[in-house]
Design a protein that fits this description.
Mean pLDDT: 96
CATH class of the largest domain: Alpha Beta
Domain Aminotransferase class V: 58-374
CATH superfamily of the largest domain: Type I PLP-dependent aspartate aminotransferase-like (Major domain)
Largest sheet: 7 strands, mixed
Oligomer: single chain
Helix content: 40-55%
Shape: globular
Radius of gyration: 21 Å
Protein name: Aminotransferase class V-fold PLP-dependent enzyme
Pfam family, one: Aminotran_5
Distance between the termini: 41 Å
CATH architecture of the largest domain: 3-Layer(aba) Sandwich
Keywords: Aminotransferase, Pyridoxal phosphate, Transferase
GO molecular function: transaminase activity
CATH topology of the largest domain: Aspartate Aminotransferase, domain 2
Strand content: 5-15%
Order of helices and strands: HHEHHEHEHEHEHEHEEHHEEHEEEH
Length: 393
């Protein structure tokens, strides 16, 4: 396998990769963080699976999928992320996985505290706040200083743990959806362990573009998407529970279709998207063939660096995400400091430069514009963005 850093700059190679995707004419999409594209071959496989399920109906599902194929696909997922099959269960997305983990975490008692920050996903924050009424706990909310730094992030959590000794559970986002900041998960998890605080990790944007080892990170509970950077059909995610911690997550609303020792009881039992699940073996194969997260992450980081290095020090532009390689990935946010309404600039980027981006609010550092290249994005697209940012600033 060629060096990923060198390959990340090889436009000819990435054009051959982009040629495997069908892209509708229109704006240059720099909002690839919402969900990812399926390759042409994955779309074709997905369509075949839709036809198979539609034609065979419950016969195949009852006789084959539920008894054998679903278990094999789950084993392939576990192998992809380096965990035991018994520690993962499919969900429709990361949000559903995280809600199940928060809802069913059973170690909280009245008077305990739970922690969220300004950078958590809104649904995760609301789920943690829901615990106040359902469990009688206090919700502690913190904001992260800007600009962020590795040591500063650790100091913020250390201070929170010391000031709130009744903390028992916290939400943590691996890659924040607002600014693209990559949290130093391993260091924060070690600190949380010292203070007896469990972490539920939101890995929605991490899987597929960041190479990580869950055991090394020190994470026992996490939720992920498969339809962002892995390249699966929509409505696929999963939850992870370290096997030795399964008893700390209750079966979802007394779910009884699976034994209490089976992690699948920790999610609502329902009819899943069978064709999408059946497409995953090909998705995993293509992900590995490209080089997995190390290759994808290097390419996305390269595209990000092209525009960030060009505008970082320009008057009128503030890049919100730091350049510490431990703290960023392909997703990065910026704002026009001379314009109060970033949404207006999002619309100008689209209408005047044919660049599709998205505004993000809610972080302590203020409103911003999220720029997320994808695996079909080119260096020429980044140059077009640089020109646009220079003109609009």
């Amino acid at each position: 396998m060629p060096d990923n850093t060198r390959r990340a700059r090889d436009e000819a190679f990435w054009q051959t990769f982009a040629d495997r995707y069908d892209v509708q004419p229109g704006p240059i999409n720099l909002e690839n963080g919402y969900f990812g594209r399926m390759s042409r071959t994955v779309v074709e496989e997905y369509q075949r699976n839709i036809e198979l399920i539609n034609n065979s109906n419950s016969v195949y599902v009852r006789q084959r999928f539920e008894q054998h194929d679903s278990l094999e696909i789950r084993a392939q997922l576990a192998e992809l992320i380096g965990v035991r099959a018994q520690s993962v269960a499919f969900t429709c997305n990361a949000t559903a996985a995280l809600q199940s983990l928060i809802r069913n975490y059973n170690l909280l008692r009245p008077g305990d505290q739970v922690l969220i920050s300004d950078l958590e996903y809104d649904t995760v924050k609301s789920a943690m706040r829901w615990l106040a009424g359902s469990r009688g706990v206090e919700v502690v909310e913190i904001g992260h200083a800007h600009p962020a730094s590795f040591d500063g992030l650790l100091a913020t959590y250390r201070e929170a743990f010391i000031r709130h000794p009744n903390l028992k559970l916290m939400a943590l986002t691996h890659v924040t959806h607002r600014t693209g900041l990559v949290m130093p998960v391993q260091a924060i998890a070690a600190l949380a362990k010292e203070h007896g605080v469990d972490i539920i990790l939101d890995g929605a944007h991490a899987l597929g573009q960041i190479d990580f080892d869950l055991e090394a990170l020190g994470i026992a509970f996490a939720g992920y998407n498969l339809h962002k950077w892995i390249g699966s059909p929509l409505t696929l995610g999963f939850l992870y529970v370290a096997p030795q911690r399964l008893a700390d997550i209750d079966p979802d609303m007394a779910e009884a279709h699976f034994p209490v020792t089976d992690i699948r009881s920790r999610t609502p039992y329902s009819t899943p998207n069978f064709p999408a699940l059946m497409t995953l073996p090909l998705v995993f194969e293509e992900h590995r063939a490209l080089g997995g997260a190390p290759a994808k992450g290097a390419r996305l980081n390269h595209l990000r660096d092209l525009w960030v290095k060009a505008v970082r020090n320009l008057p009128g532009i503030e890049v919100m995400t730091p350049d510490d390689p431990r703290l960023y990935c392909g997703i990065t946010s910026m704002r026009f400091t001379r314009h109060p309404d970033q949404q207006v600039l999002v619309e100008r980027l689209l209408n005047e430069f044919n660049l599709f981006t998205v505004a993000r609010n809610g972080s302590a550092c203020g409103p911003c514009i999220r720029i997320t290249p994808g695996l079909t994005t080119t260096a020429a697209d980044m140059q077009r963005l640089i020109v646009a940012l220079n003109e609009l600033r």
